Amino acid sequence: MSLPSEAAARTAAAELSGMGHRLTAVRVHDHFRCVPSSFWYGKPSMDPELEGWWQVFSLAVYSGYERIALEPFLRSERIRVAQVARTHAGFQQGCSEGGAATLEEIFTRVGLVHEQAGADVALPIPLPEDPVRPPAGPPWKSPEVGEPAALVQAVLAVAERMYGGAEDAPEAVGWLLDEEFAFGEPYESTGEFLGYLADAVAHQGTCTDATVEAVPFLAELVRDDSVAPGSRLILLSDLLRMAATGPAAAVSSADRITALGGVRVESAADYLTRRAIGSELPMLLSRWEDENDAARFALAALTALCGSHDQRALSGLAALPAPAGSSRADVVSLVAALLRDDREGLLTVLDRLSSWLPRIAEKAAGPSVELRSLALAVLADLVVEDVMSGFAAEGDLSCP
What we know:
Layout: E1 2-3, H1 6-18, E2 23-28, E3 54-59, H2 67-87, H3 100-106, E4 112-115, H4 148-163, H5 171-177, H6 179-182, H7 190-201, H8 209-223, H9 229-243, H10 245-252, H11 254-259, H12 268-285, H13 293-305, H14 311-317, H15 327-340, H16 343-356, H17 358-364, H18 371-387, H19 389-394
Antiparallel strand pairs: 1-3, 2-3, 2-4
């Protein structure tokens, strides 16, 4: 965790030690930039905003149960540690897991302030369990994704139609039109090719200028009937995740921004990506009547993520197969509340989602997290998880 002063860091470290953490160290931020033997010695700070801040590193050991059984308890521990940081005007800045013996061996003891040899964090008896998830909605009719060779040819045809050659194509698309690509190894599955395409456009889920430039290409693929319906649905899911990158970053950085006393400014690439997707929405929504229910669900969510108030998307939600009491009904309610700008509705449905989906409850635990940002941040994954369930059930999709 990161704290604004040495005194705050030492107080927080004492609290972590009191929680049963085995090792706790306090170091000035960017400590290794001052260590001659370190790779970081003399290099510019990667985080200059935290100049003069202090960091707390600790090792907590949990034993006696399989990792999967510990997850509900570990989630509560992550929330508790984040709250310790907030209490002292700081923020939690990440965590990782591994074998206790290995982590204890590699733990940097510079600035060690508390050591409790052999200590384990006390576990409650019985261990908490995850809540029961509501039943899913009725299965979607899973559309065909097409053979990989046919999809590659369809994608190439769209790229050639839009750009003519690699030199005129966006950076994230040019490889498709490169002469070497035509002689490359064939893809074993449609999902493998779509996975590489998505990573080329938004590497590891990060939006860049190249992502913004490639949005019209992805939208054209979604509109192109030579691309199989299942593949178009996967491409729609990619657009959903790209549109959600800004809100997701806002939620993950909320504590940090509050601690630094600033106001978060969305990155230009995240903002421009979402705006580019919004510019393509009218043409995507013009196909509403021709799409299957899963695609309509994704389109309605994309409309909400882009801040549009298209009545076709809102009214179309009521026709989707989402029986009361199902997990899908809650996600449909979330989309509807966003499309209506219904703050009270958002609060109600997020509370309901948090009651059965712990990852949302963990995100919502931070008091600095803004309601609408939280809703937008979680929406894409909820919808993609739902519409992709048919593919997973049939085992016809394999992504890297």
